[in-house]
Fold each of these.
Amino acid sequence: MRVLLVTGNQSKVAEVRDVLKPYGVNVEKADLRKFEVQGEIEEVSMLAARLAAMEALEPVVVDDSGLYVEALKGFPGPYSSYVYSTIGNEGLLSLLSHDDNRAAAFRCAVSYVDPINRVERTFLGEVAGYIRREPGKPGGFGFDPIFSPFGPNGVPLSEMSVEEKNAISHRGRAFRKLGEYLAARQ
Amino acid sequence: MRVLLVTGNQSKVAEVRDVLKPYGVNVEKADLRKFEVQGEIEEVSMLAARLAAMEALEPVVVDDSGLYVEALKGFPGPYSSYVYSTIGNEGLLSLLSHDDNRAAAFRCAVSYVDPINRVERTFLGEVAGYIRREPGKPGGFGFDPIFSPFGPNGVPLSEMSVEEKNAISHRGRAFRKLGEYLAARQ
């Protein structure tokens, strides 16, 4: 089957295509507007998917992600990409400079809307870890260089290969749940 | 004439009522949802006003405000209330702790939609000033204690009376423009 992914980011399309291929799902980039409401990531992804599905009249998928820092009450959360584009990694590190609690998680919500069969589902993925004292090498998206998932070696997300990152990332996890769901329905 | 103000904040209703009374405009609190999109404050206020007007079927007004800090590329901007509720005044001060450029402005967008006469207008108000090194006394909304408008005495917004604040604030200025517009149409 085919689903349309609503995003302006071509490298995300390639990443999601790799994740969903084993489930027999063919991902195409949709040329539709991603409408974004203020709210939790699962509200953002679901409303955007509903509006895109009404336009496309076929199954669509929208994801939304955020970095949640425990010591900052979840900031920057749903507004991570805006916050990254203004204060950046440097700003986030300075907010935590006197804080020993470095706990953080990346969360992803993937919403699937099939307007023909009237199906709506949201799948959540999370990767827990910590905000590093020093950034790793550049790479990946946004805050990836200052985040290391919990694990034996403390590698930042930005230094992982696409395959390594897909295996453990919030986005990889959420999209695999979608893949399992769609494979079971086919 | 009467307009419905879409807000959950009763003290804002009182503030706006005072500002619009001299223009012959009677402000009532609307019991309607304020739908908030991600975007610039004038997009947030206009879309919220359109949706509320479709529900109310009479003239409505919605305002949205933000604090724009020059050294932080406009952060927190349209997400000021979320940012205030997470990192607060302390977080914003720490982001600027090594910065001599303290320039900032509060901006307000007021959108008026009259669904009967098919009128839509947005009015902007701004107050320029600076982020203080130390917070003033608590008071007002959100970041008011750490912002002083340019002027002779450097008083923070949080320490002004409602009348003083209305006279120079971003919100007062935007709503007076609306008042002038409505008075000219009556």
Amino acid sequence: MNDVSPIKYELLHIDRYTNARRGRIYTKHGIIETPVFMPVGTNATVKAITGQSLEDVGSEIILGNAFHLFLRPGLDVLDSFGGLHSFMNWKKPILTDSGGFQVFSLKDRIIDEQGVSFRSPLDGSKLKITPEISMKIQQSIGSDIAMAFDECITAYADHDYVSSSIDRTFRWAKRSFESHSRKDQALFGIVQGALFEDLRQRSLEQITSVPFDGYALGGLAVGEKYQESEKILQSFGTQLPTDKPRYIMGIGSPTMMVLSVENGMDMFDCVLPTRMGRHGTALTYNGRINLKASKCAYIEKPIDENCSCYTCRNHSQGYIHHLFKRDEILGKMLLSIHNLHFNISLVKDMRKAIEEDRFLQFKKQFFEVSGYPLKN
Amino acid sequence: MNDVSPIKYELLHIDRYTNARRGRIYTKHGIIETPVFMPVGTNATVKAITGQSLEDVGSEIILGNAFHLFLRPGLDVLDSFGGLHSFMNWKKPILTDSGGFQVFSLKDRIIDEQGVSFRSPLDGSKLKITPEISMKIQQSIGSDIAMAFDECITAYADHDYVSSSIDRTFRWAKRSFESHSRKDQALFGIVQGALFEDLRQRSLEQITSVPFDGYALGGLAVGEKYQESEKILQSFGTQLPTDKPRYIMGIGSPTMMVLSVENGMDMFDCVLPTRMGRHGTALTYNGRINLKASKCAYIEKPIDENCSCYTCRNHSQGYIHHLFKRDEILGKMLLSIHNLHFNISLVKDMRKAIEEDRFLQFKKQFFEVSGYPLKN
């Protein structure tokens, strides 16, 4: 429990015609400009990219997974190295999720009031994560921002289940807050409630009653249509406190980032750019390009002639196509660089649009003129 | 057939006590200091490393594979892009092998006087490579140095077979030379003869009777013991012309590079550093380190505290161990960087030792004091 927040959020400007906001988060590992996209570094590495390239594409903060890091390298190793920053040699801020999302996607997990029991996917051993254990793990990791332990439920769970789940998530949020002791680490609470407006409202009131350092919308991007998550965003985005960072978890498709920013959200994370990159798809302002398609074989142009990333400055679509046809690691590396650069450039462009009160024009351009697909 | 060689070899110095020599090869894509290690870029990419990192580790020339590039992307694409340099955006020199080594390792290849027939490992289609076709492929690739088409035979083929094979390789060498027309591309001949001294002698006399721009020893590092290849090196290294580059093909283990330099060789290539790197093994002056070993989990030191590569400047053995345990691509990337940097640093150290007439001390230090394993 922090008396003084280890991070500070500064609201710089709100777009004149939307709820899009431009801000800044001060942490001991540096300043984060918002809106911000956080690349996901599940296993103490953002997949297929070096730390240097991660900096080069403009990453200001990355996300680590408490669940995965707890399994391996494990707390002994993390403690021995003095935390994740030092272990992976990343000098900028890190946010960790609580492990909830990963644990709840395991088949054999058992939930009780105390926490969640499950078998290690690595060696089958019996493990349990409680709010207290999640705080312990995240404190060993030493992230700048930790997340409260919550139950992440599917978008289509029934009303009764979601109702009892959010009440438990509230109790777990308070236990997370009480057991969290690391004074140089911020702690965010997570609003759940699936797609039920009444339950989202209750969860929001519950979670914001705890003086967390920031607040998140969880349980979105878990299978629902974008219109459904947009509705939740429209109803609840601006209900989150204005003086603290607002984080929408697991959102990172270009479409959803634009809609989230419009509704007052500040922080995003998603494996989408790196995962798509490893599978041969590039993100651009004109939609997605499947580099595996044979029509790319002779294209001497880069993915985007206006893109300043390493990949576009150095390589053609034809070359990247060839790398994917031969299943060469370099193909995955080059598209991971490009896609992360794209997502980060997108939030940078949105920052500028907000500063100049033209977020609506930006959105119009993004969806209509550039023809970006309005889908998840 | 070139009237004037498109490359120039300058012999700078011969070590006072050995046959080790320090030289320089001038090409239209830049100067190559020798002895030189050439990273292997089979499919128009040195595996798991960006072009930028390849430059950063000190690569002065890379090797491309005519056989693989002929299959994919194919000559149409290479011609459309104006050659391999432009296709992969590599601005320094490139050497291509003739396809011989790859074709002869296929099971169903049929050799006749004309060339080699085989089925494409990609789609089963019937293909044939002749000396003339190999020259055509390498001319489309546009490498700075092309290799004559030869039969690469196993170390333990019988005397009769090797005898007839080297005579055919001689006829193919002359056909390669006659059909080669690209004036800005050098062409090297290849001495074969397995482990038979009399046949190596005959092949050397045959091949050096053709005015190639450089000469190679082929058919080594194909399964024999290091002492056997060392014997061939001792007998024939210095018999190769002194005024042209000397290349020993497929050699790139630290041990064999040192023995090759001692016997007057200038150029080396091998997939060993990158392949070992992708499998978790690091090369150092104190032997190999298996980063997958559990004893590495807590080691906060880099692979080599004296190494200046990106990997050693930024990451611990414990971190790399973790990446391999999680099968993360970054592990392969980091060890490929380190191992290439190691092989290139090794040739740089040998250059300096030759310049200062202390190659023997260098060799002694390498094998005895540092305890580097004297094996293949």
